[in-house]
Write a structure and sequence with these properties.
- The chain is mainly beta.
- The protein has 3 domains: 11-255, Sandwich (Protocatechuate 3,4-Dioxygenase, subunit A), CATH 2.60.130; 266-377, Sandwich (Hypothetical Protein Tm1070, Chain: A); 380-482, TM1070-like (Hypothetical Protein Tm1070, Chain: A), CATH 2.60.290.11.
- It contains 3 helices and 33 strands.
- Strand 12 (239-242) and strand 13 form a beta hairpin.
- It is elongated, with a radius of gyration of 35 Å.
- The N and C termini lie far apart (74 Å).
């Protein structure tokens, strides 16, 4: 035995989106235009009889049909969910209350996913068939029944409005525009329309204020050129459910439009020395430890901090390169040993979960190639510390100011006993770099023949340091601690 609703009507269950069940009157009753006992809705002082309720629409991973925006689109930029009021004069349009829920889904070859952050505009005519801000309707400057909302994490936008009226040549409908932005630039744009069951509309239009037109509407869904020109027209038909004050309309809209690339948080790292050509090459090894794909931006700069154009296999020549990394994938970026020696440094903007290091390789006649692994250092440090050994080796330094402000970097050398054996100041413009031999710096001659450690500090700008230790034909890197 079927259960009954509050009007003692038999009800049935139909499947809707996400497996939720919704209870609606039987389809036969809806087609007949009644649902048993009659209730009343108070709208602008008039009684609106209850109308039939449509069966629910099943969500499928299907693209909705794109439809014309029509002649009455105006980009009013009215961010509001209740669109009944005209903000220019404070008046409110009368009619049967209608809540509209639009569920926007991005449809791709991978399936469906809620489209978050999209702008959803709706606009429609009033009970008398007039649009706001339309010269043809003598409503220029008015803004009733227009507005937009931004979809939430579920891809949903909600509106409060009135049941639309009608005008000659068109079935009852609401216009919908879905836009995605990158900053202020529109990157995705989709327009469609939402239609209503004609049996319900006929019932609504017998009541005030809809019944003051003095003529009968001439277009139903069955002969509407827009509705019948749609490939999936049934999916443009809203699911209507009776509420205590009017109706709620729900429509699931599947789109395939460009979306704003999510802003991925990155941390800047510096490799204070790159050298390629003249017997040297530099490689950068990157690993994405995340399951999802991501990308790394590499900015190459010369000693003065200006962009340094480099050529990467498969990417061409540029000072800025974006390296795509699939989930769990690695990549090698190599600056080949070709031509004369070029030096500079590289900034790597690494998303969370991406790590890496550099490798220097020197090729010289008469011996095997020499390599050293070199770490990346964080760009926000104002303190760096490094151990040195200048007894039987020569210590080289690459020092970078990765910040956008000039920096005066104080350097102090302490020997193995903790005594200060040298001090100097390295002044670097924003984003600039220097490469020097430690003992050749002014004030640092005392480090020759000693072992100890170096302190680098700055109160303006930042500092990134890399040490290299050379001994006869071999060399290795000296990592620094950055704070």
């Amino acid at each position: 035995m079927n259960p009954k609703n509050k009007n003692n009507d038999p009800i049935v269950k139909t499947e809707v989106a996400a497996g939720i069940e919704e209870v609606t009157p039987t389809r036969r009753q809806a087609l007949l235009g009644f649902t048993g006992a009659t209730a009343a809705f108070a709208v602008a002082g008039a009684a609106i009889a209850t109308a039939p309720v449509m069966t629910a629409q099943n969500l499928a991973c299907v693209l909705s049909s794109q439809m014309t925006e029509g002649p009455y689109w105006v980009d009013e930029r009215l961010n509001r969910s209740d669109i009944r009021t005209d903000p220019t004069n404070g008046t409110t349009k009368t009619g049967l209350p209608l809540t509209v829920t639009l569920n926007i889904y991005s449809v791709t070859s991978a399936g469906c996913a809620a489209l978050q952050g999209a702008w959803v505009d709706i606009w429609h005519c009033d009970a008398g068939g007039l649009y706001s801000d339309a010269s043809a309707n003598n409503t220029v400057g008015q803004k009733f029944l227009r507005g937009y909302q931004v979809t939430n994490s579920s891809g949903t936008a909600n509106f409060t409005t009135i049941y639309p009226g009608w005008y000659s040549g068109r079935a009852v409908h609401i216009h919908v525009r879905i836009r995605t932005f990158n900053g202020t630039t529109v990157v995705g744009n989709f327009t469609t329309q939402l239609f209503f069951d004609d049996a319900i509309s006929d019932t609504v239009f017998t009541q005030s204020p809809y019944n003051t037109r003095g003529r009968t509407r001439d277009t139903l869904n069955s002969n509407d050129m827009v509705y019948n020109g749609a490939a999936n027209k049934e999916r443009a038909l809203a699911t209507l459910v009776r509420t205590d004050s009017g109706y709620s309309a729900t429509l699931n809209i599947g789109v395939n439009i460009a979306t704003q690339t999510p802003v991925v948080a990155t941390t800047g790292y510096a490799l204070p020395q790159i050298a390629f050509g003249g017997g040297w090459n530099t490689s950068l090894y990157l690993a994405n430890t995340n399951a999802d794909s991501t990308s790394v931006t590499l900015n190459f700069l010369n000693t003065a901090g200006s962009p340094l154009t480099v050529t990467l296999p498969g990417q061409g020549s540029s000072a800025n390169h974006t390296i795509a990394l699939a989930g769990r994938a690695t990549a090698i970026v190599e600056l080949a040993n070709s031509g004369d020696l070029t030096q500079g440094w590289v900034e790597a903007l690494l998303p969370d979960g991406v790590t890496g290091y550099g490798v220097f390789r020197q090729t010289a006649t008469g011996r095997a190639d020499q390599e050293a692994v070199v770490p990346l250092s964080i760009e926000t440090a104002t303190v760096a510390q490094m151990v040195y050994d200048d007894v039987n080796f020569t210590t080289g330094l690459a020092v970078v100011n990765p910040s956008t402000a000039s920096a005066s970097i104080n350097v102090i050398a302490y020997n193995a006993s903790g005594s200060q054996v040298g001090s100097t100041t390295i002044t670097l413009a924003a984003r600039a770099r220097t490469a020097v031999t430690l003992r050749d710096l002014s004030g640092m001659a005392g480090v020759a023949g000693t072992r100890g450690w170096l302190s680098f500090t700055t109160t303006a700008g930042t500092v990134s340091v890399l040490g290299l230790r050379f001994g006869s034909a071999a060399f290795t890197s000296i990592p620094a601690v950055h704070k």
